[in-house]
Design brief:
137 residues, alpha+beta, two-stranded antiparallel sheet, 37% helix
């Protein structure tokens, strides 16, 4: 006789976001430990996608984010680096330091997409924990 288990039902959107961001950050730390700083964003993106998918998460890369102006949908080339489980936006950077413009960028992507939570990750930081910023609407 086998026992079937049901997937864990999240008690709230906050619990879902907490679980996802914890998993994403764990995967990002794994990538940073393996590669260290100094590579292009695209290398970190590919490795992070692999890590997240290996954990069973659905990840979309380079997702178009349209601007809607007075009811008109404009495809202007804005793209979210990663969208995890259609619930968390992840923006990757490989810069000397995170700047206010990076925070403004992810906040804009959250507003335009309707997603509530985002992570800004700077893989060029010596210690990744110094290059993490969680943002939410």
């Amino acid at each position: 006789m086998s026992v079937e288990t049901s997937p864990v039902v999240e008690s709230s959107p906050e619990a879902l976001h907490a679980r996802l961001t914890d998993t994403i950050l764990g995967a990002a730390l794994e990538v940073h430990r393996a590669l260290g700083p100094g590579l292009l964003e695209s290398a970190y993106e590919a490795c992070l996608v692999w890590e997240l998918e290996s954990k069973g998460l659905r990840v979309e890369r380079q997702v178009a984010v349209p601007v809607v102006y007075k009811g008109m949908r404009l495809e202007l080339g804005y793209r979210v680096d990663l969208l995890v489980e259609n619930a968390v936006i992840v923006e990757l950077k490989a810069v000397k330091a995170l700047e206010p413009i990076h925070t403004a960028q992810i906040l804009t992507y959250l507003r335009l997409s309707g997603v509530r939570v985002g992570l800004l990750l700077n893989f060029n930081a010596e210690l990744l924990k110094h290059g993490i910023k969680r943002v939410s609407l």
